[in-house]
């Protein structure tokens, strides 16, 4: 398996639901060449979140054909964060357990390096 490849094939995404209405999860079937970090980036989450959701202790040990949960069953909570001098979008993302890309998408931020003190940033995290 080539750990440098982050090619993710969206056609392998499958929606699942069970008879319990409060329990549903999106799963992803790992393809040859996938990395956990690449999958996390594709789904706007973190490698650590995928590890926790799937009980993976070593993020470098996933295999083709493995089915991973990529969306938990808990609802996301939202908060508004006011940017302070010296803040970075990646630092804010880390504080909320999300990714810079997820914050960019949520807030319509094209350039993650262009945020300013006083700016309001919507943040989501899993409860």
TrEMBL record:
Organism: Jeotgalicoccus meleagridis
Record-linked Gene3D superfamilies: LysM domain (3.10.350.10)
Origin: domain of life: Bacteria
InterPro entries: LysM (IPR018392), LysM_dom_sf (IPR036779)
Gene responsible for this protein: ssaA2_2
GO molecular function, one term: lytic endotransglycosylase activity
CDD domains given in the database record: LysM
Extent of the signal sequence: none
Domain LysM: 26-70, 79-123
Protein name: Staphylococcal secretory antigen ssaA2
PANTHER family in alphabetical order: LYSM DOMAIN-CONTAINING GPI-ANCHORED PROTEIN 2, MEMBRANE-BOUND LYTIC MUREIN TRANSGLYCOSYLASE D
Pfam families assigned to the protein according to its UniProt record, in alphabetical order: LysM
